[in-house]
Structures are given as C-alpha cells and as structure tokens.
Amino acid sequence: MQHISLFMKITSGVLVYFKNISMKKLTRRQFLLKAATAGGSLAVYNASLALDIFDSHVKTENLQLKPGDGKTQIVILGGGIAGLATAYELEKAGYTCTILEASHRIGGRNMTLRHGDLIDELGRPNICQFEDQPNLYFNAGPARIPGHHQRTLHYCRALNIPLQVKANHNRLAYYQEQSSFNGKPKRQVEYIADARGFLAELVFKAINKNVFEEELSQEDQEKLLHFASYYGDLAKDGRYKGSQRAGAVSDRMLSHGNANTPEKLDAFLKSNFWQDALNHSEFYDWIEPLLEPKGGMDQIVKGFAKSLKSRVITKAQVQDIEVLEHGVNITYQHKEALHQLKADYCFNNIPAPLLVGINNNFSTDYMNAIAAIKRKDLFKIGFQMRERFWEKEGIYGGISYTSQKNAQIWYPSHDINAKKGIILGAYVWNPDDCEYFANLGLKERLSLATECGENIHKNYAQYIESGVSIPWSRMNHMMGCGNAFDEEDYPRYFHKAQGPEGHHFMIGDQISYHPGWQEGAFASAEAALLKFNALIKAKS
Q: Coil, strand, or helix at residue 356?
C-alpha cells in the first residue's frame, strides 16, 4: 500500500508504466531511473519529493548539491542575477560552468550607473555623465532589499557585501496631485495625520451615539472613546481640528506650536493619497526597514564576479538552442563568428519575450508556456544635483509621490550632508507613461521630468547638473522589465515553464511569482537547482 501512496504523487503515465512491475526489490536509485524512463525529468522530480530525497522548500543557504564528477559541463544562458547565483552554487559543488551573456556586462537588470558607464539603449546608446565620485551613483534597476528577502540577504552575507538601511517611507517627503489643493505639494505627514483624525472622529461619533450599544459595555465604550481620541488626536469634544503630529505653523522650540489647520474632509477624500501613497509602507515588500548595499546595488554583481571562476563570455548572442537526449547544444555568435557549445545541462536566464525569437526544438507545450510570459515595462530617470537641497527641507531619504508622469522622486539615504547627490527623478510603471517617456528624445525625457519636479520643489531645475534615463523596454538584450504571466495564466503555464525540458531549465525572476525582485530570481535558481539535483542523483 505504501507504494500506491507514493505513486499517487507521480504522473499517471508513470503509474501505467509500473503497473506490472514488482516493487519490493527496487532501490531508490532504480526506482528513479525507471521513473525517468517512463515520465521524463519531471516525473523524477515529483518522485524525489515523494521519497523525501530533498525538500522542495530548502533555503538557499542550506542548498546541498550532489558533488560534481569533474566531467559534467553546464552552460548558463544570461549573466543576470539568477544565472550568477546558479553558477555560484554549481561551482561550490564542483561543476564546470560557462556563462554566455549577450550584453557587454553581466548583472542583467541589476545595473548601477556611474561616471562613464554605457547606457545601451536600442538605437540611442549614450554615456553617463555623472561626476566621478564614489557617492554619485544611480540604481537603475533594483534599489531596495526587504528584510524578509532571505535569499538575497543570504548572498549578501556569503559575498561579504556590506548593507545599510534605506529610508523608503518618509512622512516629511511630499505628495503632489495636480487635481487636488491647486496642485500644491503637501507633506505626507499632513495627509496621514488628517486621515487618522477624520477616521477617529467618525468612530468617536458612532460610539457617542450608542451605535455599538448592543455589542459594547459602558466600560468598553469609554475605553474605545479614549482610544479614538488618542489615535486621531481629537479635541475634547471629539472633533478633529488638526494635530501637531503633522507639524506646526510656528517654531515649536521657542513658542507654543499651533497645529496646522487640516484640509476639509471633502477635499481630503477627493485626493487620491489615501488609496495611493498612504498605504505604500504597508505593502509587505516595502515595510521598513529596507536595506541596500553600500556603494550601489551592483555590489551584489561584483561580489559574484569576484567569487566565480566560471568562464564568462560577454557579447555572446545565442542563436540556437537544441535539447538533446542527454544534454544541450548551443549555437552563439561572438566576435562576428558562430560558435557551438555542447553541455550536459543548460540553465536559461534569457528574457522570455526574446527567447521565443531564438531558434529551438522545445516541445509545443513548453514553448507555449514560455510564450505566455508577457513583456512588462519600467522607466527611470536619475539626476545629479549640485546641492542636496532636499535635506534643507528636512527630507533624508524616502519618496515623494506625484500624479504627474514622473510618478515618484526618490532621495538618497546615503552620504547625508555631502555636497552633491543623485536623486531618482522619475520612477514610472504605468504602461502608457512608460511608452510616452520612451518615445521622447533623451533631452526631452529629462526636460519633462524636470518640469514635474518643479511642481514639488521650488527651483528644482537650477540644481540639475546632468541626468540619465533608462527605458527598460528599449534596453538591448532586455527589452522589458519584470516580465510575468498574466494572473490567470499562472495556474496553466507556470509549472510547465519551470520545466525542465530534458536537461534545459528556465530561471530568472520571470519564472517566479515575484517578478521584478532579485528574490524572485534567486528563488527560481534555487528551484531549478533542486530539480537538477534530483536528476543527478537519479543517474548516480
């Protein structure tokens, strides 16, 4: 009976194969080899789970791969975060890897721009003109690490990458909306204090009118009234009349501070702040404290580069992927010549929307799953400022939000009180606005972001010394950012895209439920390595 329960976790095709086979004398190795014959690599993986040969939720830091035999050759297509992590883990286990990267650099969307760096935009290559100073850098891709992204933090520890706290939510930063309060920027703390005040006033009135009479005792009502008064900083009569939590109209150190006068409730409700920036700090991936590597997010890429011994070939564009019975054959172009590389296993980090245009012999089902991964977009602008004017306004890190096309302005958390700094002048994810920016010329993009900034900070333009723009939809060898399945496609295609297809594995944040984050990329690499490990063990 125990064999029946085991097989229920494997595909029906494998069940048919074993129908007339005696199971009593089969070793685990023999069992997995027969599973491979009947149902392929996916059956081996599922059977391994059933036999508890490995845990499907092993943490990366505890990942134990079967040691390499010195002969197994592995090719990794794409030197992004997932590809680098895959090579790192395989090297530790004694496998020989070759990384083929189409771009002039490794790291994928983990890209930090500094003086002299190439911005490889399709048809518009340009050079970053920031001054050559260590604190003047711009994280054009990932820019923050949540404390619960344990895989990312594991690699930071393993690679000895120093981290610092990144201010993400700053109540002294601004929220500016063109259609509210005459377009005037307001400190987020004012909105937050008013939101609590108005909400608490409604609760107070409801309790005071005995709306909860049947459910709350008199003592409970008194306690809840006290809670509402404290939560919203209400006046003695239970009305919200403003709060010093939002600041004061005079110097609070030398005189009694009079609270800012709150906006009218109807004006407050017409603003989109309460359904936008008000809750951003509540999202699980944005709860503070957040972290960032000292010196730029690409310190993670540099850490991998220092650790890896694998052969890395940049400017190597894959032309053909052939899945063989016991391996893969890769054709790639490098230095105007075609080369072939035969390997036992392949881990593929190429963005799916580009991969569908590369010649291959994938099965129809596998190809359909990869093709279901949709191209997503993101747009960023970075400005070098001759003076850190925002610090004079009491803003040290964090984000200002706006309804304008630039959407956000980020302030650096590092090098406080330095003379100059880099701010993020636009962080755009709305598809139409991304396309609008991308279709503009280089100077026009910066001009538009400058105009938006003027509506938040007075004399914003006069501080700008140089700028860069990153339209990820136009970045060579990427042509998108955070590619993902549509929500309804995950159940249908996700596990098929995970594969493997023979000895070919897809990796990258696109093969995760968390696209756009490095944690998703690391998780995809971890999952693929577990499946690889099952195949290796089955053959030993």
A: coil
